[in-house]
Give the backbone structure.
Amino acid sequence: MNDTIAAISTALGVGAISIVRLSGKDAIEIANKCFKGKDLTTAESHTINYGHIIDQDEIIDEVLVSIMRSPKSYTTEDVVEINCHGGIISTKRILETLLLHGARLAEPGEFTKRAFLNGRIDLVKSEAVMDIIESKSEEANKLALSQLTGTTSKMIKRFRKKLKQLLASIEVNIDYPEYLDIEVVTKEQISIVISEMKKDLETVIKESKNSVIIKEGIKTVIVGRPNVGKSSILNKLLEQEKAIVTDIAGTTRDIVEGEIYLDGILLNIIDTAGIRSTDDIVEQMGVEKSLSMIDDADLVIVVLNNNEELSKEDENILNKTNGKPRIIVINKNDLNKKLDISKYNLKNVVETNTNTVEGIKDLKQKIIELFELETLKSKDSNYLTNARQISLAKQAYKSIIEAEKGINNDLPIDMIEIDLKEAFDFLGEIIGETYSEEILDHLFANFCVGK
């Protein structure tokens, strides 16, 4: 952290402007060495300075240089941003010149990593920065902005404060039992706090599923035996001819993917190979892939043919998807009905056809109802949004449960304290109050260079 880093912060290519960023104790001095114009070392913080970047006596580009002095900057270090004309050659040459004058090429996410290590933002806010960049919908962007403003971090800090106060009282009682003027912490008092914390974490973990849906979308897999109309349904949902449709069974041998938005929520839709027994090796591989994708799906759309009797293959698919979030689609409802599924008592059943614009309207509406998409956007977005955060919350919850068991089994308070400390530490890892270098390296490696 003693060196000065530099990177191109805008997408590399032809554009109106490009930005090259520096951060570190020598950022202003390094920029000044290759700047022709005002002496940047005397420039006031948060000013924009006109001039040229030069390599010895050669002008590389006409630029505007922003100066942000420590600690009022993104990284809390001295930060310089050079705004030049958009273009690959001039942008790269400016970066190369800065590197020649003593800067080091920044690693992916290193600017944000420095902001975290210098205490300007916590880990939740750091992850929110990347979520804003990668958000694919307006709702995902709103969720990321909510985390960036600190609502989720405040919630976790509130949980930790409650545990910290309890742990402090327990410590005083254990270390100084002879003092008569301290409040005695009883197991009943501990039980009350544990009950509150358990309820809070249950709510957070449950509602965080909604946040993941908003951020990542709903992974939707369309399954069924050959020629029931899976590819036609995919094409209608996407409103384009994405998948090849023929009357030949086994036309789709590999997955076909596409994306649509329902009520502002992304659906990642996957059309799979028709599931049936086959001697064709390539088709077998497609069938195996189809079956494996059912386990990873957030939603399974099982397609049956209204014009044919229920087959053994259909029954196997229904059994395979039982217990998964699914919608049963009886397709080709414009043809004579031969299908009878009354003995199965199936839920979430809709009828469709792909011959009309309105043919799959009921399917879209059923997805909206199943995931409560209309109310999902209006819910409090003050929750966790990725696997790391949710996993740590679940571990904290598990420790709280162990503490509750200790109370019920009348264990000594110092034994119960161990579980409470674990919960406190797990919550700390969510916001980065406790962390390891390995975790940081992995987290920020997913960032783009220059951010």
